[in-house]
Amino acid sequence: MAPDRRTMIIEAATKSFSLFGYKATTMDQVARLANVGKGTIYTFFKNKEELFEEIISKLVKEMIAEAEDVIDKGLPFTENVHRALTRLLAFRSQHQLMIKLVQEETEMGTLAVSEMLKHVEDEIIAYLRQKIETAIAKGAIPPANPEVISFLLLKMYIALVSDWERNHDPLSSDQIAEVMKIFLLREGAK
Questions:
Q1: Residue pLDDT, tens place only, 136-181
Q2: What is the second-level CATH architecture of the domain 55-183?
């Protein structure tokens, strides 16, 4: 069976972006890593930006699948949100491509990378918004603006996991969950 050239190209580009970053990755480099001619890449992708978008789209799907894997319908909503966010942020901080992209954005301010990281954040917020809308409809949490709550949840988690640790001892998972309950998701309060 012939290898799937499109998949080989995506895998090679992911490897290149993960190792060298977006800016330093070239289509020639991707072609060498995929063991295909450069022209073959252009039969599937118009340019590097389109290839990058495809990879980030796949990455977002993987992140959402990771979050869904930890949701337990038998647990309270706040616990599931906490579990999902913990998994999302762990994925983000451990996935080689995400690490390289965050590094490139910080060090070089590459516009395409900044836009893709914003896209990833927007997708996470949309995922959370859908979960919050469902919880509000079921009466699990009080009515509020789901978009704002989703944004705050994500930013709060990032702040408590990353920013807090710069000057303080890390918070435990239970401590973070408690902060979330106190400030944002007063479960069952009406």
A1: 998 888 888 999 989 988 888 888 877 888 888 988 878 887 887 7
A2: Orthogonal Bundle (1.10)
Which residue shows structure tokens 């999902």? 84
Domain boundaries, the chain: 55-183
Q: What's the burial of 168, exposed, middle or buried (CB within 10 Å: 0-12/13-18/19+)?
A: exposed
Rg (CA), the chain: 19
For 79-113, the pLDDT digits (tens) are: 888 889 888 888 887 888 988 998 999 999 999 99
What's the whole-model pTM score? 0.83
Nearby residues of 74 by Cβ (< 8 Å), 6 or more positions away: none
